[in-house]
UniProtKB/TrEMBL annotation:
Domain spans labelled Coenzyme F420 hydrogenase/dehydrogenase beta subunit C-terminal: 232-383
Record's protein name: Coenzyme F420 hydrogenase
Organism whose genome encodes this protein: Effrenium voratum
Single GO term (MF): oxidoreductase activity, acting on CH or CH2 groups, with an iron-sulfur protein as acceptor
Domain spans labelled Coenzyme F420 hydrogenase/dehydrogenase beta subunit N-terminal: 155-218
Length: 507
């Protein structure tokens, strides 16, 4: 276990060269600037927070580590984090594992470049060329859905595959707790509240997407404090940036068993205000929105709290220029759409369009390793798998579509989108129909989405290097091998876009 000792001078010998150069000093300087936060940095948990019996059970060395002084977590009210603007508020800094931030944060040091080595550690090997887009898939990629009798009854959104698996993991006593994202409730249904769920009812309360940055590692502090006690086997549910940080501190958690179940993730809104701004632009009834998703029919589906659905063509956003600044800056520097370090990833975009409501639709899953396969086995009575062929040829080549979509997206990111009148609704609907019937489908639709996000983010990341508010280390932030390979496929387009946007500022 790597701990920050209570005095900075003692910390030095334990730091890597990279940490000495940039990380710890910056962290300390930043905390000094934020006044009272410095006191937090050197406060320590009382050793009494950890029961004595933990020391006996884990052996003397571990017991000593447990009782050792730990750096205090940053308070949740903290405004500036080590990764500054690029912080995805994953929650790690709000735990005493903050001592690991330089090597764990997906947006510090080499950042997401670490996916390459973490893939080897977690899955035993890196992804092959065939696995370029979806990551290591040792047990295949399959369609997946819940059996009708197990479909969620009261869910705010989505199909319930993830929560069904999590419930079965608890029921079969494979894990003691599930770390998942419930809702803040009380008028803030779409805002995330990560919890350590100990019952099926608590797991079910996490159903549906809370489309916002979520501090998923925060409950690890609770787990950390009771470790050696009730929670020794954990199922963690989260998105790519959270899972990367989790994998980096996995060894420090002292768990007997860790399972990681994740979802795809892209373009997360940065705050409640940003989410409302987007909903106002998309929906006629933003106040009752209970969930939304960009679906494979090229429409935004909004589910409302009274059970109604709205389907809005992507070309029909009202005042799209108002959506600049909605997406978190971390998501413009993210190269882990498919959550490569999970044991099992679930998403919707690789399932061909079935013409159903978002909560009824098939999903797809990537089974990365034996633990992922084990989770599916445990939940098999609740699930139907492999019913749908995911490889569906589209009639229009996806390579030709990318330039058309990237320019407006980059204009939005860089605040260059102009107010303009979109096509009339009937034309927007027609365009969506044509695109859905002729364009990429199934896994090819997903590949197109991954390429779009990857090339856009490569351009954004280059522009953000050294930009005010980005972490000073951003010059070192690397891109994983798969992103570099996708860049090669679109080298000319990438260079053209880079020339057009590299002097701009990601908003
Ligand atoms: C922010 C976000 C963006 C997504 N974008 C895409 C996308 O572009 N393409 C795609 O194919 N799929 C995307 N997904 C995944 C998709 O929306 C579904 O979550 C997934 O397919 C699982 O559906 P389900 O019905 O099985 O989930 P459910 O059974 O409803 O369970 C959902 C689970 O998601 C977790 N969760 C909810 N909100 C968050 C959050 N903010 N951060 C971390 N975990 C959370 C909860 O813990 C819960 O266990 C995204 C998910 C999230 C959270
Ligand atoms: S992304 Fe997570 S680890 Fe990185 S600075 Fe933010 S809270 Fe800390
Ligand atoms: S898009 Fe990437 S950075 Fe943003 S919340 Fe999702 S996984 Fe994290």
């Amino acid at each position: 276990m790597d701990l920050i000792p209570p005095a900075p001078v003692l910390a030095r010998p334990a730091l890597s060269r990279l940490e000495r150069r940039s990380g710890r000093r910056r962290l300390l300087a930043m905390r000094s600037r934020s006044g009272a936060a410095l006191c937090f940095a050197f406060a320590a948990f009382p050793a009494a927070a950890f029961p004595r019996r933990a020391g006996r059970r884990f052996g003397r060395a571990r017991g000593a580590a447990l009782r050792a002084k730990k750096p205090a977590p940053m308070p949740e009210t903290q405004r500036v984090y080590p990764a500054k603007d690029l912080c995805s508020r994953c929650g790690l800094c709000n735990t005493s594992l903050i001592s690991k931030v330089q090597s764990a944060c997906a947006f510090l040091g080499h950042g997401m470049l670490r996916i390459d080595s973490l893939e080897s550690r977690v899955h035993g090997r890196q992804r092959t060329e065939e696995e370029l887009y979806f990551g290591v898939a040792q047990h295949g990629i399959h369609s997946i859905r819940t059996k009708p009798q197990h479909a969620p009854k009261t869910r705010t959104a989505w199909t319930g595959v993830v929560t069904a698996i999590a419930c079965e993991m608890l029921r079969s006593n494979k894990v003691d707790a599930v770390l998942c994202v419930a809702s803040k409730g009380d008028g803030a249904q779409l805002e995330p509240k990560p919890i350590l769920a100990r019952t099926e009812a608590e797991v079910l309360s996490s159903g549906g997407v809370k489309p916002m940055l979520s501090p998923n590692l925060l409950p690890l502090e609770e787990l950390w404090q009771v470790r050696g006690g009730e929670i020794r086997r954990l199922l963690f549910i989260g998105v790519g940036c959270q899972v990367q940080a989790l994998r980096a501190v996995e060894e420090d958690l002292g768990l007997e068993e860790l399972y990681v179940l994740g979802t795809n993730c892209v373009d997360n809104p940065r705050s409640p205000e940003a989410l409302q701004r987007f909903l106002k632009s998309a929906s006629e009834f933003p106040d009752t929105a209970a969930g939304f998703e960009f679906m494979q029919d090229n429409r935004i589906h909004v589910k409302h709290s009274d059970g109604r659905y709205e389907r809005i063509p992507v070309f029909s956003l009202k005042d799209p220029q108002m959506c600049t600044g909605v997406i978190a800056k971390s998501c413009y520097a993210c190269f882990d759409y498919v959550n490569a370090l999970t044991d099992l990833t679930v998403g919707y975009m690789g399932a061909p369009w079935e013409g159903k409501e978002m909560t009824q639709h098939s999903q797809y899953c990537v089974v990365r390793n034996a633990k992922g396969q084990e989770m599916l086995e445990i939940a098999k009575d609740r699930l139907r798998m492999g019913e749908v062929d995911l490889e569906v040829p589209g009639r229009v080549d996806r390579f030709g579509l990318l330039p058309q979509v990237l320019k407006p997206e980059l204009d939005l990111a860089f605040g260059r989108r102009k107010a303009s009148v979109g096509p009339p609704r009937w034309l927007a609907e027609l365009l969506c129909e044509l695109l859905t019937r002729l364009g990429p489908q199934g896994l090819d639709f997903a590949r197109a989405s991954i390429e779009r996000a990857t090339v856009r983010n490569l351009v954004c990341l280059e522009a953000m290097r050294g930009q005010k508010g980005s972490p000073r280390t951003s010059a070192e932030l690397g891109v994983p091998r798969h992103a570099a390979r996708i860049r090669e496929k679109y080298q000319d387009l990438y260079e053209e876009l880079l020339a057009a946007y590299s002097d701009g500022t990601v908003q």
